[in-house]
């Protein structure tokens, strides 16, 4: 498994930082703060499926934006509600 491209990682982080909500990816037993570019570089792979947890005042908008970025870079994500 190889790491996701640098462009994907940067865009995911930049998109997350536009929102006030907490945005966390879960992969197996790891939880990654999507606003942390270092966490993404060490964890985000191009061949995994991630669970996306978004909580906060702009969660709906943040969720849509994050799903769009993941799809743009062919990364698999499942939205976890609640």
UniProtKB/TrEMBL annotation:
Q: Which superkingdom?
A: Bacteria
What the entry lists under Gene3D superfamilies is as follows: HPr-like
Q: Which key words tag this protein in UniProt? A: Sugar transport, Transport
Q: Which Pfam families match?
A: PTS-HPr
Q: Does the keyword DNA-binding apply?
A: no
Instruction: State the InterPro entries in the record.
Output: HPr-like, HPr-like_sf
Q: Where is the signal peptide?
A: none
Q: Would I find Transport among this entry's keywords? A: yes
Q: Which intervals hold domain HPr?
A: 11-71
Instruction: Tell me the protein's name.
Output: PTS sugar transporter
């Amino acid at each position: 498994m190889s790491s996701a491209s640098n462009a994907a990682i940067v865009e995911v982080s930049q998109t997350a930082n536009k929102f006030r909500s907490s945005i966390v990816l879960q992969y197996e037993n790891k939880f990654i703060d999507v606003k942390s570019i270092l966490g993404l570089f060490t964890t985000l792979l191009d061949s995994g499926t991630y669970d996306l947890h978004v909580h906060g005042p702009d969660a709906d908008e943040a969720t849509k934006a994050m799903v769009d970025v993941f799809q743009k870079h062919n990364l698999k994500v499942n939205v976890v509600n609640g």
